Amino acid sequence: MGSNNSTYILAIESSCDDTGVAILHNDKVLCNVVANQEIHSQYGGVVPELASRAHQQNIVPVVHQALKQANIDKTQLNAIAFTKGPGLMGSLLVGSSFAKSMSLALEIPLIGVNHMQAHILAHFINDKNQKKPPFPFLCLTISGGHTQIVKIKDHFTMEVIGETIDDAVGEAFDKSAKILGLPYPGGPLIDKYAQLGNPNAYSFTKPKTKNPLDFSFSGLKTAILYFIQKNIKENPHFVEENLNDICASIQYTITSILMEKLKKAVKQTQIKHIAIAGGVSANSEIRKVLKEAENKYGWTSYIPKFEYTMDNAAMIGIVGYYKFLDKQFDDLGITASARIKF
């Protein structure tokens, strides 16, 4: 067993459709292995039953690969961290069962990690390609299932000050892409075509919310659907003839909704250190406007390294490391949960 200043954590992430295993030495990532599941694209979305079966097939080979890449033996590990939720129940169970068995067999601590907290703490991975935000900071956490503005006071004290009341921003991108006839997952494709289009070509309404920091995207999705239906009636080739402009306009609308809410959050909290996290933070337009906000509004922006934005086990490992230092261990009675809050 390593001493406190030399800690090896094996982390497992299985909340959705990718099986991730990472090994960290203190706050540095030795390896971050992800097994993707190709099967879902033919269904236009993630099929939970198929996802959990694929996790069962992937988890042992991925753990083996991680240990090999990190060039360490399992007996050197100090703790096992795993995603306890939120996510797809069947997928979470595969990761949590394996983590429990491994911690029991190696007689080392077990650490359950909140997936959303992990997206935020990915900023604290020691990597030359990203900088760590100081406390307190605000984090816009945007993914396929979540859209939140979180105020972070320290590694374990987080408060959600704004969140979506319906669709998440990732769903807004993917559902818009589906309306345009783009394959799943369509969010990255909207980003790709938007680069070539005019963001002011078409305008869409921005839904209002009762809490000024909350988000709503379902009205926008409906507005896009009606807009496309109306124009296709007049010109059946409307989408393919104007795809770049449509994508640029959708992306501009979504990004400006996010920025408007962030500006309000900064005004309310007086915190000007702004981070982004989650899969949608890989979007090039969101990264660009957040960078521009540094000069425009005097913010300091924190943009994670691309591989730490998507669901990955390195972010589970960094939470595991901080919890290990704090001796926040779980017993074998811990259960995974599809929906959990901070």
Shape from CA axes? globular
Order of helices and strands: EEEHEHEHEEEHHHHEHEH
Strand order of the largest sheet: 3-2-1-4-5
- What's the name of the CATH homologous superfamily of the largest domain? ATPase, nucleotide binding domain
Q: Total number of helical segments?
A: 9
Structural overview:
Fe cation binds at residues 115, 119, 311. This is tRNA N6-adenosine threonylcarbamoyltransferase. This protein is globular. It is an alpha/beta fold. The longest helix is centred in the last third of the chain and has 32 residues, at 238-269. The model has no long low-confidence stretch (mean pLDDT 91). It folds into 2 domains: 8-123 and 309-326, ATPase, nucleotide binding domain (Nucleotidyltransferase, domain 5, 2-Layer Sandwich), CATH 3.30.420; 132-303, Nucleotidyltransferase, domain 5. The protein has helices spanning 48-70, 89-106, 115-121, 169-179, 187-194, 218-234, 238-269, 284-297, 313-325; strands spanning 8-13, 19-25, 28-35, 79-85, 110-114, 137-142, 147-154, 157-163, 273-277, 300-302.
Write the layout of secondary structure elements.
Elements: E1 8-13, E2 19-25, E3 28-35, H1 48-70, E4 79-85, H2 89-106, E5 110-114, H3 115-121, E6 137-142, E7 147-154, E8 157-163, H4 169-179, H5 187-194, H6 218-234, H7 238-269, E9 273-277, H8 284-297, E10 300-302, H9 313-325
Parallel strand pairs: 1-4, 4-5, 6-9, 9-10
Antiparallel strand pairs: 1-2, 2-3, 6-7, 7-8
Helix pairs in contact: 1-2, 3-9, 4-5, 4-6, 4-7, 5-7, 7-8
